[in-house]
Amino acid sequence: MQLDPSKPENNPAADDNYIGLRCNKCNKPINPADAVLTPTGYRCKECVRGQQKIFDTTKPFDSVLGFLVAGLIAFAGSWLASRIGFITLLLAPGVGLLISNAVRMAVSHRRSAKLNNAVLTGAVVGCAPLLIMALIPLFISHQGILPSLAGLLPLIWQVLYAVAVPSSAYAHMKGFRLK
Ligand SMILES: [Zn+2]
Fold this sequence. Notes:
Bound molecules: zinc ion
Strand content: under 5%
Number of strands: 2
């Protein structure tokens, strides 16, 4: 049977069950004419140019899961940060990577911009309780006497942690490589 490829219903790339050529990066069906052969296989033009938008492959619960996982790990890490002082600086990027890997595993590697934002929000919320705890002494400082530098250090570590962890987790979720 001869199909007219100009009709949308006959366009193989529009069919979900299409088993022909697919981009080996984003899995999008591609017409042989649009396929670009790379050392790792065929890719669509968008992926070759690096301009592929993230497909929303997530399920509704994935963002909730991402938020919770990010929040729990960020909170656990901030508890650790309150005890290890300057080592927080070494810990924070690792916590961001851990969050990203744990979330990816939890959502079976599904991706979406919404999920990335949920992870960012979760990480910020997870950092918040101990950051607020570290802020409290500033407001109840003894009769207006400014706390010493040593007294401020726990707060400084928590602030750095609360900035570094969510941004590192978000960057890893988006697929950037942070060194
Ligand atoms: Zn692609």
